[in-house]
Write a structure and sequence with these properties.
Isoleucyl-tRNA Synthetase, domain 2, 40% helix, 21% strand, four-stranded antiparallel β-sheet, 1041 residues, Isoleucyl-tRNA Synthetase, Domain 1, six-stranded mixed β-sheet, alpha/beta
């Protein structure tokens, strides 16, 4: 045990302890020591290797590390492989940025697919190294050397095996469906990738007239926010049960009045006409007929852009194309009640088209440009303005405006998505959705309400589109015959080698290697691999079993990710395990929030509000950030990052360090060595703090099992500040000044040692560096090499609930005394003559009166029911309402009764009759009066009454304490060691010899008439009797005689 400096740099401790862990290979030794313990299986939700970590990523790994360190301290053999997400759009988009390209055409023509894929791999591996260093900088212990990486051969092969099993279960299919399409990334996206990616956009909002084919001047009125889809209009849908109005409209044109008939949902007639009035001179309108939607079925119309797209003319010749059809999806909440239907550009449109045998028409390419028609080659959103202009020219634009609405964007490049019909590979989740929901109920969700959120998400999820038209990912292991069109799913490298008809080195299973492999079909034809790769969420969904290269279910004991992952990673791994093993792959699932700036805004470069974890660690230390992130609020709530709160945490650990330094430095001074035999000398305060630390350990184990990390950290904070620093150390400080062999001193040291060792073990999961630093100084030779080789235990025999309750009451009384002092500005340095406590705490006073006296600086305690005098004042306003002119007589009657008796009777009886008058509580006001020199303060068992009587010896004692405080302050300024003695000269106040000797003992000094001062200062001291003293104190360093 070595002396400890009170000034501490937590970042320096980080670096020192990291070196110690690395040099001594502590992580591996801890793992080795636990290899025969019960297994705790953790699956690391993999971060994307797309750049440096951010505050949210740091928070995520700190939560994980805290829980896993706790499980190791319980003796578990923790399976703690780190994980990385290394495929997919997150990487591809970043590599495109490096090459300054933004299209698949550029990748293939300017870079080359093979080089691009190699660069993606290099980028992912490079960022993995950067992020791993950053996580280690936070003190995160994971199995980094054996981390799972989806780019590795075994992992990819597990993905192939998974897809083959899905195929064997009949849960894999290739379908033409309308889904999300990113025109910038040129790929389809799955539903779960888009959740949470909706942003407010402004789009056109137009009302268009669709002329009926065989009825002159009669129009179907539709509303759309996607004018570009009109180039693929195939149907108009109406609800069969709604009422639709034929509205006769008289338009005032230059050539005269024009009569038209508009067909609109009846409740929407007025709103549609109002919109039309902005651009049309409507002289008059009236509803001339109302029909059910079913009566409109079969009406043939001329689609408004028929002339602009020859393909539409071909379709128009078909019987049901460009007709009105019924649709249950139609609503009257907005628009017109008639829905323009483009079968290739909307999910509901697609379903309606399939129902009526209408072609699925989607005339756009992968970049979102028209492939047919007048605007061929133009991006569809750019074409909106041309289409609107053309509709105006044709007299078919009824109304034009703008609408602000929520619209899906690409989760990686942030481009607005399109809805587009394409052929994709799907996992048929709809077939096992009920199974997934039922399985989810067996999970322990943290917080519990996440279960409802998760299940609600699954209820509305569709089949999983797993194919991506990209390059960097697990290649879809499906080969299709060019001759007969049949396909086969390959489930392993072994199977592929057996089936391949050409020689290809399969060391790397990525594109373009596997694209070169050909198989022989049963029909004799050649089979080629589909060019797509798997959804990157498929990669991470494999983690529970692929990370361990398993072909069986191994349920994770614990997983945790941010709330955006509830319907993403939590779902993707569950979906795959449900397909393979018909079960959920995790037992306990925790959700945490997002890290925001102080104002609650998302952190971004554009806002300039990003908090870099590396910068925070460099200035404050990793442990300060770790504790702050876990204690700022409940884990599932968003954190509003605050430097002020971070500084508060640093202050907390400065307090801990000072308590540790106080204990160790006195122990070193007295050559103390911990021995169990000193426990027999324990005093009440020692037994109390030992009970408290074991109660704390018991509660913390419960909190970390859930885990409730906020409760865990809040309890630690309260113990450090309130129990240890502000209470126990205050209680035993004077015992540390006794002779070195005094049993009271030795028992105080033993208690401090016991408590500190327990405390750092409890702290170590969240503040590993500080805990290890303290442990290394406190541990004896026979103890384990690292704090993390110990076990968290609870010494139940030391827990004394009655003692803890009693001491809590003592602290309450002291707190009441302090509040009373604050109220009258009577500092703790001046004694209180006497306090009066109620008989309800007589037992406490008998047992702990000495503590109350010492900590409250009280001379005498009296236990009695303090008799406050009571006066009564009539409430003339209330009396006047009832008694009118007799109020004076009623007042006399009230004054004739003892106020105390009247108060008691009113409280008991409600109404008191005095003579002929009935007195109610509202007729009077009581005032409690106590003498001027008495101060009363309430606490849970009554009130503390303080007799603030100033006497000459009280002033003298307080003045003495004022001087001691000033000298101690000067010692601190001089940075003196605890044992260093000084010579002192004091002018401006005088004390008797006994008092001077007391001061000398307290400050380790000697008063002399003359000194050669190293430090001199003049202090102004004001006493409660309003006298002022100018005290000059001179201090000279010296050695004790």
């Amino acid at each position: 045990m070595e002396e400890v400096k009170t000034g501490v740099n937590f970042r320096e401790i980080d670096l020192e302890i990291k070196r110690f862990w690395e040099e001594k290979d502590i992580y591996r030794k801890v793992k080795k020591s636990l290899e025969h313990g019960p297994e705790f299986y953790f699956v690391d939700g993999p971060p994307y290797c797309s750049g440096a970590i951010h505050l949210g990523t740091a928070w995520n790994k700190i939560i994980k590390d805290t829980v896993l360190r706790f499980k190791r301290l319980q003796g578990y053999n923790v399976l703690d492989k780190a994980g990385w997400d290394m495929h997919g759009l997150p990487i591809e988009v970043k590599v495109e940025e490096e090459f300054k390209i933004n299209s698949k055409k550029d990748i293939e023509n300017k870079i080359g697919t093979e080089r691009f894929i190699e660069k993606c791999k290099e980028f992912a591996l490079r960022n993995k190294e950067v992020m791993e260093r950053q996580f280690k900088n936070l003190g995160v212990w994971l199995d980094w050397e054996n981390a799972y990486m989806p780019i590795e051969r075994d992992y990819i092969e597990t993905g192939w095996w998974t897809l083959k099993k899905a195929h064997e279960r009949g849960l894999l299919s290739k379908d033409l469906r309308v889904g999300y399409w990113c025109p910038r990334c040129e790929t389809s996206l799955a539903e779960h990738e888009v959740r949470g990616e909706y942003k407010e956009v402004v789009d056109p909002s137009i009302y268009v007239k669709f002329p009926l084919k065989d009825r002159e001047n009669t129009y179907l009125i539709i509303w759309t926010t996607t004018p570009w889809t009109l180039m693929a209009n195939m149907l108009v849908a109406v609800h069969p049960d709604f009422n639709y109005a034929y509205v006769k409209v008289i338009l005032d044109n230059e050539e005269g009045d024009v009569e038209e008939y508009w067909i609109v949902g009846e409740p929407l007639v007025e709103s549609v006409v109002k919109r039309a009035e902005k651009s049309h001179n409507i002289k008059h309108y009236q509803v001339v007929k109302t029909v059910k939607g079913s009566e409109l079925e079969g009406l043939k119309y001329i689609t408004p852009l028929l002339e602009e797209n020859e393909k539409l003319k071909e379709f128009s010749e078909m019987e049901k194309v460009h007709t009105v059809v019924p649709g249950e999806h139609v609503s009257l909440e907005e628009g017109t009640g008639l829905v323009h239907t483009a079968t290739g550009f909307g999910e509901e449109d697609f379903e309606v088209g399939k129902r009526y045998g209408i072609p699925i028409y989607s005339p756009i390419d992968d970049r979102g440009r028209y492939t047919e028609g007048l605007w061929k080659g133009i991006f569809v959103k750019e074409a909106d303005r041309y289409i609107i202009e053309r509709l105006k020219e044709k007299g078919l634009l009824l109304s034009e405006g703008k609408i602000k609405h929520s619209y899906p964007h690409c989760w990686r490049c942030k481009t607005p998505l399109l809805f587009r019909a394409t052929e994709q590979w799907f996992l048929k989740i709809s077939k096992i959705k009920d199974e997934i929901i039922e399985q989810a109920k067996s999970v322990h969700w943290v917080p519990s309400w996440v279960e409802t959120r998760y299940i609600n998400g699954v209820k509305y999820v569709g089949d999983w589109n797993i194919s991506r038209q990209r390059y960097w990912g697990i290649p879809i292991p499906i080969w299709i015959c060019e001759k007969c069109g049949s396909y086969e799913v390959i489930g392993s490298v072994k199977e592929l080698k057996e089936r391949m008809i050409n020689e290809v080195d399969l060391e790397d299973l990525h594109k373009p290697t596997v694209d070169k492999v050909f198989l022989r079909c049963h029909c004799g034809g050649v089979m080629k691999r589909v060019p797509d790769v798997l959804d990157v969420w498929f990669d991470s969904g494999l983690a529970p079993y692929a990370s361990m290269n398993l072909r069986e279910l191994k349920k994770a004991d614990f997983i945790v990710e941010g709330h955006d992952q509830v319907t993403k990673w939590f779902y993707s791994q569950h979906a795959l395990s449900a397909i393979l093993f018909k079960d959920v792959p995790y037992k306990k699932c925790m959700m945490h929030g997002f890290a925001l700036d102080e104002k609650g805004n998302k952190m971004s470069k554009s806002l300039g509000n990003i908090v870099n974890p590396d910068d925070v660690v460099e200035e404050y230390g990793a442990d300060i950030l770790r504790f702050y992130l876990l204690s700022a609020n409940k884990a599932w709530e968003d954190i509003k990052f605050s430097y002020n709160e971070l500084k508060d945490v640093r202050s907390l650990f400065n307090t801990l360090w000072n308590a540790y330094a106080f204990a160790v430095n006195y122990m070193v001074l007295d050559n103390f060595q911990p021995k169990d035999e000193y426990m027999k000398y324990l005093k009440d305060e020692d037994r109390w703090i030992i009970s408290r630390i074991n109660t704390l350990a018991k509660e913390i184990v419960e909190d970390l099992e859930i885990p409730h990390l906020h409760s865990y950290t809040w309890k630690l904070k309260d113990f450090i500040l309130e129990d240890l620093s502000r209470w126990y150390i205050r209680l035993i400080r004077s015992r540390t000044w006794k002779e070195s062999e005094d049993p009271e001193k030795l028992s105080a040291y033993q208690t401090l040692y016991y408590v500190l060792m327990k405390l750092i073990l409890l702290l170590s999961p969240v503040v590993p560096h500080i805990s290890e630093k303290i442990y290394q100084n406190l541990k004896t030779e026979e103890m384990p090499e690292s704090v993390f080789m110990n076990r968290i235990t609870v010494d139940e025999e030391y827990i004394d609930e009655t003692l803890e309750e009693d001491m809590e009451l003592v602290r309450e009384i002291i707190d009441a005394i302090m509040r009373g002092r604050d109220r009258i500005k009577y500092t703790l340095r001046y004694p209180i003559w006497k306090i009066i406590l109620p008989t309800t705490v007589e037992n406490i006073v008998n047992k702990y009166g000495h503590i109350i006296k010492e900590q409250g600086n009280v001379r005498e305690i009296e236990v009695a029911e303090f008799q406050e005098s009571i006066s009564v004042k009539p409430n003339y306003r209330e009396l006047g309402k009832v008694f009118k002119s007799e109020v004076p007589k009623v007042v006399e009657a009230i004054k004739s009764v003892d106020p105390k008796v009247l108060k008691e009777r009113l409280e008991k009886e409600g109404v008191v009759k005095i003579g002929e008058y009935e007195i109610k509580p509202e007729y009077v006001q009581f005032k409690m009066e106590i003498p001027e020199n008495i101060v009363g303060v309430e606490f849970s068992k009554g009130s503390v009454y303080m007799d603030i009587k100033l006497t000459e010896d009280i002033i003298k004692e307080g003045l003495m304490r004022e001087v001691i405080r000033r000298i101690q302050s000067m010692r601190k300024d001089m940075d003196l060691d605890i044992e260093e003695w000084v010579n002192i000269k004091m002018e401006g106040v005088s004390f008797d010899r006994d008092t001077l000797e007391y001061i000398e003992r307290e400050v380790r000094g000697k008063f002399l008439d003359e000194v050669n001062p190293d430090y001199k200062k003049v202090w102004e001291i004001k006493t409660p009797d309003n006298k002022k003293y100018k005290v000059e104190i001179s201090i000279e360093r010296c050695k004790k005689d």
